[in-house]
């Protein structure tokens, strides 16, 4: 069984920064893609950023230039550095990892006050 656990969420003022972490544990041989989605109240879950095992990254237009995704393959951990946060970034952030199946974390709340 594989588990992903997010950490690093919280309350921050607009313009501030947060760093999310997501650690995978369990029966892991290798993890292919990893990334983050988010879901704001009353909205559908949307992709935020992704990173391949070789380090190629992709971002939603709404976060380009503000968020940076990275990973530590030795630790099976993916990170999301979020800078210049805006109230519209408020959401529950979920990480995922693609192994044989796609596994999801339970989410971490990010709240940005204006």
Q: List unreliable stretches of 5+ residues.
A: none
Tally of individual helices: 0
Distance from first to last alpha carbon: 40 Å
Based on CA atoms alone, the radius of gyration comes out at 13 Å
Main beta sheet strand tally, sense and closure: 7 strands, mixed
Mean pLDDT: 95
Order of helices and strands: EEEEEEEEEEE
Helix content: under 10%
The tally of beta strands, per DSSP, is: 11
* 3D shape: globular
Structural class: mainly beta
* Beta-strand percent range: over 45%
Describe the structure.
This protein has no helices and eleven strands. The chain has strands spanning 2-7, 10-13, 18-26, 34-39, 46-51, 57-59, 67-72, 77-82, 91-98, 102-104, 108-113. The strands form two sheets. Strands 2, 4, 5, 6, 9, 10 and 11 form a seven-stranded mixed β-sheet that branches. A four-stranded antiparallel β-sheet has the order 1-3-8-7, with no helix packed on it. The protein is globular and about 45 Å long.
Summarize the structure.
The protein is an all-beta fold and 114 residues long. The protein has strands at 2-7, 10-13, 18-26, 34-39, 46-51, 57-59, 67-72, 77-82, 91-98, 102-104, 108-113.
């Amino acid at each position: 069984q594989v588990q992903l656990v997010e950490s690093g969420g919280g309350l921050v003022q607009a313009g501030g920064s947060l760093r999310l972490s997501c650690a995978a544990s369990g029966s892991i041989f290798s993890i292919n893609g990893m990334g983050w989605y988010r879901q704001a109240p009353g909205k559908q879950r949307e992709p935020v950023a992704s990173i391949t095992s070789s380090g190629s990254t992709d971002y939603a237009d709404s976060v380009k230039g503000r968020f940076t995704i990275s990973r530590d393959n030795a630790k099976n951990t993916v990170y999301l550095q979020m800078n210049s946060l805006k109230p519209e970034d408020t959401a529950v952030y979920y990480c995922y990892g693609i192994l044989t199946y796609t596994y999801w974390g339970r989410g971490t709340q990010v709240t940005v006050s204006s």
